[in-house]
Amino acid sequence: MYRVKQLSAFLENRKGSLAAVTQLLGANGLNLLALSIAETDNFGVCRFILSDYEAGMKQLRSAGYTVRTTDVLVTCVPDRPSGLGDILRLMEKEDISVEYLYSFVRNSGFNALIIFRVSDIDKAQRVFKENRIEMLTQAQVEAL
After folding, report:
1. Would the pTM count as exceeding 0.85?
2. If both were cysteines, with which of 33, 56, 104, 129 could 113 make a disulfide (CB 3.0 to 4.6 Å apart)?
3. What is the pLDDT of residues 34-75, one digit of tens each?
4. Which residue range forms the structural domain that includes residue 101?
5. H runs (alpha helix) in the chain
6. Same domain for 62 and 82?
7. 44 with 20, same domain?
């Protein structure tokens, strides 16, 4: 199964809130592998992939954060002009909406690692597999 667990934590829009959550994770031996922040007027949504999502969920909830998990796909996208565009065009052709995406912090060689949240994860997995687009498993991601 190629689904990877992404954690989303809700943070107050105030100075130091991102520092506090990243320090909490780091103090508990959890490595941030990928990170995305989206903000609204009153709070931010911090989406991240951790070296151990179960431990991260436990630590964040124990510290009082509102946290949820979401299944995402982590794919290897050719690191060249139109590499991402080609995959997005394929998804458009297959009627799969991209709700959001962000890139991975790690270097995988000739590919960029992109995290996709899509409208139909099962269909996206099938399309990626049929088109030989490499996806990573939870174990592979956590081993990076």
Report:
1. yes
2. 104
3. 999 988 778 889 999 999 999 999 999 999 999 999 999 999
4. 72-142
5. 17-27, 53-62, 83-93, 121-130, 138-142
6. no
7. yes
Query: Do residues 15 and 58 share a domain?
Result: yes
Task: Indicate the angle between helix axes 121-130 and 83-93, nearest 10 degrees.
Answer: 120
Which pairs from 25-32 meet CB under 8 Å and 24+ separation?
Answer: 25/50, 25/56, 25/59, 25/60, 28/55, 28/59, 29/55, 30/55, 30/56, 30/59, 32/105
Q: For residues 64 and 75, what is the distance between their CA atoms, to the nearest angstrom?
A: 32
Shared-domain flag, residues 35 and 76: no
Give CB contacts under 8 A, 24+ apart, made by 86-92.
Answer: 87/114, 87/133, 90/127, 90/131, 91/118, 91/124, 91/127
For residue 47, how many C-alpha atoms fall within 13 Å in the half-sphere facing its CB? 19
**Total structural domains within the chain:** 2
* 105 has a pLDDT exceeding 80: no
Taking only the tens place, the pLDDT of each residue in 67-85 is: 999 999 999 998 888 999 9
